[in-house]
Design the sequence.
C-alpha cells in the first residue's frame, strides 16, 4: 500500500513540475514577446530606421535594415538569457589561441560595438525628443484631455510594482 502511495505522490510531483515548467515557458515567452514588441513599436513610432535610410541615401535597403534590427534584438536576447554558453574568449583560449590575441580582438570589437551603440542611442534619444513634441498635439486632436495624468501614473505604478517584486523575490539571483 505504501509503495502505491509513494508512486502516486511521485506522479503528482512530476505533473506539478511539468505544469510549472510549462507556465514558466508560457509566461517567459509572452513577456519576452511583449518587451520586444515594445522595442519595435518605439523604433517604428520614432521612424528611426527610415531616417537612417534617408540620411545614408540607401532607402532601397530599408527591409535589410529592419531585418538587422530584428536579428540584433533576438541575438542580444539570446546572449543575455544564455550567457553561460557565450564565453567565446575562453573557448578560443582553450582551443590554443593566444590570450593576448583574444583580449586585443575583444577590446577592438567592444570598442566598435560601443561606438555604433552610442550613435544608435543618440539618434534614438533625438528621435524620441522630436516625438515627445508631437504628443501634446496628438492628445489635443484626439480629444484625450482628461486622464492623461492617470494613465502615466498607472504605468509608473506598474513599473514600480514590477521592480519591487523583482528585488523582493530576488529574481535577479534566481536567473543566474
Sequence:
Amino acid at each position: 500500500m505504501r509503495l502505491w502511495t509513494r508512486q502516486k505522490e511521485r506522479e503528482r510531483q512530476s505533473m506539478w513540475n511539468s505544469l510549472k515548467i510549462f507556465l514558466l515557458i508560457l509566461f517567459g515567452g509572452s513577456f519576452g514577446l511583449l518587451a520586444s514588441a515594445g522595442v519595435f513599436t518605439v523604433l517604428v513610432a520614432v521612424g528611426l530606421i527610415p531616417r537612417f535610410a534617408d540620411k545614408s541615401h540607401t532607402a532601397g535597403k530599408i527591409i535589410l535594415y529592419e531585418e538587422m534590427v530584428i536579428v540584433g534584438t533576438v541575438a542580444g536576447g539570446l546572449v543575455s538569457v544564455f550567457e553561460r554558453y557565450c564565453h567565446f574568449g575562453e573557448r578560443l583560449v582553450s582551443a590554443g589561441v593566444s590570450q593576448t590575441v583574444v583580449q586585443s580582438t575583444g577590446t577592438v570589437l567592444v570598442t566598435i560595438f560601443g561606438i555604433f551603440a552610442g550613435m544608435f542611442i543618440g539618434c534614438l534619444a533625438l528621435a524620441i525628443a522630436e516625438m515627445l513634441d508631437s504628443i501634446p498635439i496628438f492628445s489635443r486632436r484626439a480629444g484625450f484631455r482628461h486622464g492623461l495624468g492617470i494613465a502615466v501614473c498607472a504605468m509608473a505604478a506598474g513599473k514600480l510594482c514590477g521592480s519591487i517584486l523583482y528585488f523582493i523575490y530576488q529574481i535577479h539571483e534566481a536567473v543566474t
User: Anything to note?
Assistant: Residues 112-144 form one domain. The radius of gyration is 24 Å.
